[in-house]
Every structure is written in structure tokens, then in C-alpha cells.
Design goal:
This protein is α+β, with helices and mostly antiparallel strands and about 80 residues long. Helices cover about 25% and strands about 20% of the residues. The protein has helices at about 1-10, 70-80, and strands at about 30-35, 45, 45-50, 55-65. It starts with a helix and ends with a helix.
């Protein structure tokens, strides 16, 4: 959650970032990685969504690896709202 708060602080946007530490939101957005080896517990895929005030998803990025979304692309979408 620290990185989400730091990103929000640096960009000066008045929006909320959510960390799904307990995996309660991921299944609702098809972001749960259930195909893990050795019977490991399912975890969230690394995912970024931009959801507008009406609840419409305006941007989706998802990775099962260790990559990160393109922050410039993400900020462009946020600024366009």
C-alpha cells in the first residue's frame, strides 16, 4: 500500500488507490491467479484499473509476471477523466 500512497502523493490526484491484500476484490475483476504450482494459495495478478466516477472501467493493465504498467499511459488516462 505504501507504493500506491506514494504514487498518489507524487501525482497530486485526489483519487483512491486500493490494495487487495486479502484477495477479496480480484475475483470480481477476473484478476485472481489460481494456476499456481505445488498447491500454493491463489494470489492476485498484478493489475491496474482506472475506474471513473460512474463505475466504468476506463483502463486495464494486467500481468502475471513481475512487470509494471506504463505509468505515463496510466497518467494519461487519469488526466483524461
Amino acid at each position: 500500500m505504501f507504493s500506491l500512497n506514494e504514487f498518489a502523493k507524487q501525482t497530486s490526484f485526489g483519487w483512491n488507490a486500493v490494495s487487495d491484500w486479502n484477495g477479496e476484490i480480484a475475483p470480481l475483476y477476473d484478476s485472481l491467479n489460481e494456476q499456481l504450482p505445488n498447491g500454493m494459495k491463489a494470489v492476485c495478478k498484478r493489475t491496474a484499473f482506472v475506474i471513473d466516477r460512474t463505475g466504468k472501467i476506463r483502463y486495464t493493465w494486467q500481468s502475471e509476471g513481475g512487470s509494471l504498467p506504463d505509468n505515463e499511459e496510466l497518467l494519461k488516462v487519469i488526466r483524461g477523466l
